[in-house]
Design goal:
Helix content is 26%, strand content 28%. It has 738 residues and is of the alpha+beta class. Strands 2, 3, 5, 6, 9, 15, 17, 18 and 19 form a nine-stranded mixed sheet that branches. The chain is elongated.
């Protein structure tokens, strides 16, 4: 999911900061349904607990056989499929509703009988202001991404009409795993007429009705455009001992929070979508032959295995789809489709190129893309809130009427496409828990996206087509731009914190994680990091890794456990500012000093006046002997001192001092003390002192206090002044488009 309008808008906002509707009665009173929701529901019939409400990054590595063990490729399926969804759905594009019949088959992986199961009804986050989503939005005084609000008549919900297990009706109860308001209906518990034995499967037949909201938070409609995400009842995850820190079977099924996303078991989908025949459809998975027409409606069938979600789109305004193919090593041939509205025709080809480039980069640097399709959807004008969202084999990008090289529009379209595709790996194939450990999806994905931008030599452009015509097209290095958008001086939230218990919002999960991982890469090396991430993908694809599993893989493969453990302890499981600086810098000529000294048996006094004459004479003689000597050299040595101060976390530092004769001294500062003084006595005066000359620490509060010169040097201020001026212009550009 993109945040705002990707990294650029986040940077802009960070810089600028530095300078009702009741619950539907029908929903609660369907035959066979729940009684009134309760914030303290009765325990499940089998006593299996729910994950803790405030669970966050896991510190204990998963067991080797977690989720069935590493997938070797010799198995009959890519994933250890736990669930199968067979769904018939019909879209009413006038009422913006989806009527569905779902056959959900779930397998009990545990060693105990299961008598209750939990499902997500995510669409109920939009039924009214009493949901957890809107309660958090109201109490925090913040919006979601672009700040779209639902108005009267635009709410959404999901209604369970009937649920059966075999021939028996299944009673259900709304529950609140995170202690949210009683008026939240995003998690439901089914109490089963027949327990599911260990290793056995059961099937639920579910009739449901989904009312789509006006496009908000990843789903909804605008005009004839429909993005249908989180639209069907979806079962939670039963985690077993040794999986993501679990010590006993537990259900992981959190409420839909303002800033949380999703988590689900791998499985397979067989979905039939019936829509008016004039509508263009795109969806997760592979289309199964030509659509079947009946009474002016077309039924499109899509099948996909080894995924954990299914989304689709339908719009009668879509232009002719752009379709191409991509082929990569160890991947099947991929059919890439771009769906776009006529007003954003200029965005189709750039989105296609970015998608295919992403397929190549991620396949080469992480692992093969295993699916046969990829669908990119560009939402129409006024449906921006549907943009920048990921689902398996399917994602939405952004659209622009003009896409010119060297402009912000071009970069934003490119980056959002890369970013949403990248989720197909971190959210999709690795399938991390986005509720509890968003660092593993949004954070790592942002980092890998920026690596792609960096590796292809691409800059973050800030200009508009107009400014470019005027010769003004400022560009920034990708990680430097990302650094601007992360709180460095007073960070409040650990990247490993969950998605919803955050003082500074979800933004730092993206920017601070990308920056800290960039710093770790600079510290241990680009090639070792890439080998480690390839191994992370190999070990954990289709297996739901935890933060501890990432840490262990990085430490094992890079061979630099101390560095990895230190970074995770300081900056993933906790958050600490990095703030080292050069506090003082001097280089003084060591001249003879007045006073008395013993010569033989006598004491001789060196008077200042006599010393001044002697010094002048020796300097003249030295200059005569060295007519081409540089300034800063002479007959007397120089004592150079550098004082470094630490106001944050202890990180390994390097101090580089350059001298007038062209020589240099480099020293390491690996201690934990709050200050350190280094000194040298050399025949040349020092010219400059620089901390972190290799720029290993982008998390540092300020890089401006990392260096000093003995003589005033206006070049840095001029350079920074130009950068600031360019950035202000860029901000004004963005403000005009927000």
């Amino acid at each position: 999911m993109r945040l705002g309008s990707t990294v650029l808008r986040r940077c802009a906002l960070a810089a600028l900061l530095a300078a009702g509707v009741a619950v539907t009665a029908e929903l609660l009173a369907e035959p066979g349904g729940a009684a009134a929701a309760s914030s303290a529901p009765a325990p499940s019939l089998d006593g299996i607990a729910l994950a803790a409400p405030h669970a966050a990054a896991v510190n204990v590595p998963s067991s080797p056989n977690a989720w069935g063990g590493a997938r070797t490729g010799s198995e009959s399926t890519l994933s250890d499929r736990v669930v199968h969804y067979d769904i018939d759905a019909t879209l009413d594009p006038v009422k913006h509703t989806v009527t569905g019949r779902e056959k959900l088959t779930w397998r009990n992986r545990s060693s105990v009988p299961v008598k209750s199961v939990y499902l997500h009804l995510y669409m109920n986050a939009f039924e009214g202001t009493g949901s957890t989503f809107f309660t958090e939005k109201r109490e925090r005084g913040s919006g979601f991404r672009s700040g779209v609000d639902i108005k009267d008549g635009e709410w959404g919900h999901m209604l369970l009409r009937s649920v059966t297990q075999g021939e028996a009706s299944v009673p259900w109860t709304f529950v609140h795993p995170d202690n949210g308001p009683a008026t939240d209906h995003t998690v439901v518990r089914f109490d089963l007429p027949a327990a599911v034995a260990p290793g056995a499967s059961t099937t639920f037949d579910i009739d449901f009705h989904t009312q789509l909201p006006r496009v908000i938070a990843r789903t909804g409609y605008f005009g004839s455009f429909h993005l249908v995400g989180q639209w069907f009842p979806k079962i939670g995850v039963l985690e077993l001992p040794g999986e993501r820190g679990a010590t006993a079977p537990r259900w992981n099924a959190h409420e839909m929070h303002l800033n949380s996303e999703f988590y689900a078991d791998f499985g397979s989908f067989d979905v039939r979508l019936t829509v008016p025949k004039e509508y263009t459809v795109g969806a997760t998975g592979e289309p199964q032959g030509a659509p079947v027409e009946n009474k002016g409606m077309l039924t499109h069938r899509y099948v996909q295995g080894d995924v954990h979600d299914f989304a689709w789109t339908a719009d009668k305004r879509s232009a002719k789809p752009m379709v191409e193919t991509w082929t990569g090593r160890s991947s099947p041939q991929v059919t890439v489709t771009v769906l776009y509205p006529p007003e954003y025709a200029a965005s189709a080809a750039p989105a296609m190129k970015a998608a295919k480039d992403s397929l190549s980069y991620f396949s080469n640097t992480l692992g093969p893309y295993p699916y046969k399709t990829l669908t990119v959807v560009i939402p129409p004008y006024n449906a921006e809130e549907a943009g920048g969202m990921e689902y398996p084999t399917f994602f939405t990008a952004e659209g622009y009427a003009q896409v010119e090289p060297g402009t912000a529009n071009q970069y934003l379209l490119d980056f959002v496409t890369i970013h949403e595709f990248g989720h197909g790996y971190f959210y999709g194939l690795l399938a991390t828990n986005e509720f509890e450990e968003p660092v593993l999806d949004e954070g790592l994905n942002e980092y890998w996206d920026l690596r792609m931008v960096r590796d292809r030599g691409q800059q973050v452009f800030a200009g508009t087509p107009l400014t470019r015509k005027l010769g003004f097209s400022p560009g920034f290095q990708a990680f430097a731009a990302e650094r601007m958008g992360t709180p460095r001086g007073d960070p409040a939230d650990a990247p490993g914190q969950n998605a919803y218990d955050r003082l500074q919002g979800i933004g730092p999960v993206y920017s601070r994680t990308a920056t800290l991982m960039r710093d770790l890469e600079a510290r241990v090396g680009k090639e070792p990091i890439e080998r480690a991430f390839k191994e992370y993908y190999r070990r954990w694809k289709f297996r739901h890794p935890s933060t501890a599993d990432l840490r262990e893989t990085l430490a094992d493969v890079t061979g630099q456990r101390a560095a990895v453990d230190s970074v995770f302890a300081q900056q993933v499981y906790a958050v600490t500012k990095v703030d080292d600086r050069i506090a003082d810098f001097s280089s003084r000529e060591q001249l003879p000093l007045p006073g008395t000294r013993q010569v033989g048996s006598s004491w001789v006094e060196d008077k200042q006046a006599d010393l001044d004459k002697r010094i002048e004479k020796e300097r003249e003689a030295w200059k005569k002997a060295h007519p081409k000597a540089k300034e800063g050299l002479g007959p007397y040595p120089f004592r150079t001192e550098v004082l470094v101060r630490r106001y944050g976390a202890a990180v390994p530092q390097t101090v580089l001092v350059k001298f007038a004769d062209g020589s240099a001294e480099t020293v390491r500062w690996d201690g934990t003390e709050s200050w350190r003084k280094f000194s040298w006595t050399r025949p040349a005066r020092a010219v400059s002192a620089e901390l972190d000359p290799q720029r290993l620490h982008y998390l540092d509060v300020s890089k401006l206090d990392d260096s000093r010169t003995l003589k005033p040097d206006a070049r840095a201020s001029r350079r920074w002044g130009m950068d600031v001026a360019a950035f202000i212009e860029y901000l004004l550009t963005l403000i005009a488009t927000v």
